[in-house]
């Protein structure tokens, strides 16, 4: 049986490992103390509870992700309203609304005042077609039409989906999201979140699955070099923090590390080299919120016109996402937490049974400095496919050429594509990008 060495135990590496486990001997080398990479849960001392490094929102139009979860028997670890329901609040204009998409392709929701974006004109939806037809150079801002449809829906969708501001964000990448989601109708847009934590949904079930196939998962094991025989065009050995690993003639390698690490291990590799941060503010409440109406149904709310962008309700913890957060890099932690707390009180108090206290509770700000590559047209062009010049080496990771921005779906899809690039069977036809 051939042996596949997977470097990196984030979701791309785990997805490849899960796909390969029944076909090959598998070893995963993960530098950190646990797998999960940028999508992980941990116990936070200050809050004295388990939190995710960042809130992750998925839409139902994520086929590779749901295939992965189904294979692991973990779909029921997600929670969501089971319908395309998105409560929103405009902090500047003090307007609340709920976007309720109609299930099929025909957008009946646009004709219903109570379901669409308040203040939008029907003609504004032309922006969706402009995004889907955009060329590789175009920015999101090039395709938007001024008005509330852009301000209250497309801009927030772009900033959170691309993690890049609209002036620089790639219209092609956002157009790909629109094609998979809004253009297909509400059934493709149902929101999902990890119910008990990202690790409980995406990591622990994968490790359990891999154990069944006797795959090895070596945490706290950093790979520092690849030895390559240019004559045969093959990787022949790995240098790891636990010593060298010699590869057999049939062995292969999947490099599923972030782009700068991959470029360090594989000289000459060009990948994204500009990054954007995401900040997450977590507040520990004395008791769970008692939400009403659409907030209760969805379990989250989107905000426009302020700093906070998405608020997620997790029992006693309120978690807030701020995307494209490089712009707030100089803002002190305490000031940012206090500012966001005031926005939360303004937004949530009318939507909950018991108002939030004026005094900010125990809180924690986590800034992931290199959360995603900057999804600009220039960075998108730097993304390589899964195949490399070496017959037994493939690339995976959300930064490879998935056609998507940095997302769970892109990461999981890329693992499957890398498996296909090495000539193994894959879980899906998603291997088309190799
Ligand atoms: C705060 C935040 C919020 C996000 N929100 C969303 C969201 O709402 N929806 C969504 O779909 N996506 C979201 N994302 C993006 C998503 O988390 C990533 O796209 C995905 O987790 C990337 O997985 P990956 O396996 O490609 O990379 P990574 O998770 O970076 O995995 C790479 C792994 O390689 C390991 N490694 C590095 N160097 C070495 C080495 N030398 N040897 C061995 N191992 C090594 C790392 O420790 C890491 O575990 C968010 C990301 C962040 C940070």
UniProtKB/TrEMBL annotation:
Top-level taxon of origin: Bacteria
- Domain Amine oxidase, residue spans: 11-284, 317-419
What residue ranges are annotated as transmembrane? none
**UniProt-listed Gene3D superfamilies:** FAD/NAD(P)-binding domain (3.50.50.60)
Q: Which Pfam families match?
A: Amino_oxidase (PF01593)
Provide the GO MF annotations for this entry: oxidoreductase activity
Listed InterPro entries = Amino_oxidase, FAD/NAD-bd_sf, SQase_HpnE, Zeta_carotene_desat/Oxidored
Q: What is this protein called?
A: Amine oxidase domain-containing protein
Q: Which organism is it from?
A: Bombella intestini
